[in-house]
Here is the input.
Amino acid sequence: MNKLPLIIKREYLAKVRNKSFVIMTFLSPILMVGMILLIAYLTKLNDSEKRVIAVLNESDFFSTEFLSNETTSYVNYRDLTLEEAKDSTINMGYYGLVYVPEENTLELVSQRAFFYSVDAPNTTILESLERIFKERLKQERLRELGISPSEYAEMDRTFQMNISTFEGEQNLKGINEIKAIIGGGFGYLIMMFIIIYGGFVMRSVIEEKTSRIIEVIVSSVKPFQLMLGKIIGTSLAGITQFGIWIVSGTILLFIAMAIFDIDPSDVSGRGAIPAIGQGVNSGIPSADLTMQLYAQELFDIPWGLLITFFLVYFILGYLIYSSIYAAIGAAVDNETDTQQFIFPIILPLMLAIYVGFFSVFSNPHGPIAVGFSIFPLTSPIVMMMRLPGGIGEGGVPVWQLISSILILMATFIGIVWLAAKIYRVGILMYGKKPSYKELFKWLKY
Amino acid sequence: MNNILVVDEVTKQFGNHTALRSVSLEIPENSIYGLLGPNGAGKTTLIRIINQITYPDQGKVFFGGEALKPEHISQIGYLPEERGLYKNMKVGEQALYLAQLKGLSKHDAKERLKFWFDRFEIGDWWGKKIQELSKGMAQKIQFIVTVLHEPKLLIFDEPFSGFDPINANIIKEEIWNLKENGTSIIFSTHRMESVEELCEYIALIHRAEKILDGKLSDIKKAFKNNIFGVGVTTEAPELLLGELKERYQVLSSSFDSREKQLDFSVQLPNENSTSLLGFLGSKSNVNSFVEAIPSANDIFIRTIQNKGYAHE
Here is the structure.
């Protein structure tokens, strides 16, 4: 008779019925959406705040250059001394005062011009002021050289390198980053899942150990069966929770956006990936066509393949890590003793994410990316970041994928075997503060 | 008589530490067997081997004549010393789960649980969580879960530790009932006096080795020293005592002058107490005459001393 389904069912129900689990399941999407709304709101608020700057212009070189815009409006002072203007600025509560003195040359004017403000000025404002002066200086110089503004405008050219693979496919700038972000999303999902639900597995083992029920249970089932049932049951609960999060989060987000009338690009454009956004958009002609190409590229990402391999890496990676978590739970008597063992598990996960973001994004098939996508403790995350580029030519070479999965499987068998041994001994060991040396001894029992 | 369980030369090591050294036991069917020994002697390791939680390095265990195999788990019930239940689970669900793990079908488990819950009059606990129950209540549940699948062999590790006297008695009675119905029972304990009255057979385990085993009555016979405790009423205790000391080896004595009661213990050269009784009967009124049978504790201590362990 097979007792595994029984154990899985109990572990699942025990997790799903747990009050804090239920609360987290339903509260998290609300918190997340609330946070996104808050960020969007604050961003809007920040943008809509208008600053007033007083201008005391005594020079003939400047007349209409100080133009009010969305974020700044300029108030011109006339026939005031500098001191009077300063007082007035303070009294009116303006953000600051630009003083442009009268001099013979524009150069001198620029050198002697001052911006007075209560505190050190905001960089955005400073930059816009500097831009005004720079532009004016440039025009003056052009005039001296005898070039008309329209001639100058024609001089200004942008240039974009055309890129292509040897097979003649046109490559788009930034598409690698976009693909890596998609893969990174999958990798990140794997990491989050491992950390959250691996921790659950560990705590569940500790609970069984401290409540002393473990010996009753292992007199009925094999410890390995119990461990496996626990891991599977917990991960099913995790998948349930993730599913609820994704569905309810999406629905809530759309509802909230509809209610508060928020443009999604407000949030995403600013928050997550500003650098990539700029890289993609800056100076590319005929934006529509480009967008079409990007859409095509995204469409061409082998989604089926990606999801298949996501499942493979997800399952193997999760099983490896959660069995380590189970072994840790078995080795200790309470949660405070787990710290020394948890850090070495988190380390490769963090490493995978960092290597992914710093190296794989810019160079998905470079030596570092290849190395970490084959090394078994980081491969589930790093390989997922590489895979959106496809398999075979132009993507991940087949041998790398196969060796990565084979090594991962071998590791899986090895680690689960080791973890099961530690687990088997550890669950019946009370009152011993385990060291690595002790754990090593257990392997021989 | 058949043996329900035979342990044959079992050795178990944990690293450099030997937990069991060539231990052999024979546990007769339908008996109550006491596995006695101090803490850390290896009793729990032996029980874990019988329950197939761990495996012997050397030696074999036979259950009902067959080499121990996973199928036997459903015929053994085990109440460990470190006992507990899931705190957040409801009593009924938990009992069902544990019974199903022992191989009962859900239907059977439910029916039997009902029977036991009624028997202990705890039917209204079904929907309660363990953390709402007192320790004594939880122990009843544990007992039920242990015996629910009607195993042929029941193993209780430190059975009465933590039970209050009332519950301990209830449990003792239930264990007697089970024995009457044909179940074999192993008690493992370091508090030997707690199970002495129940056990027919005992084995003494000390420092990973079995140092003594057999029928308790036989062992006691072998260990008795022909010492008798006697109480008589007499007007002249000194005189009587003097005469006694001339004839027998008197070990200790005390006199209660108000009740005229003389108590003494005496060691005879052999089992025959007729002459002593005759002598006393002619001189005084005998109130009590009891052979001092050694307790399991005494036997244990003497065995250890004889084997020279105590000097280590």
Notes: The radius of gyration of chain A is 31 Å. The longest helix of chain A spans residues 223-260.
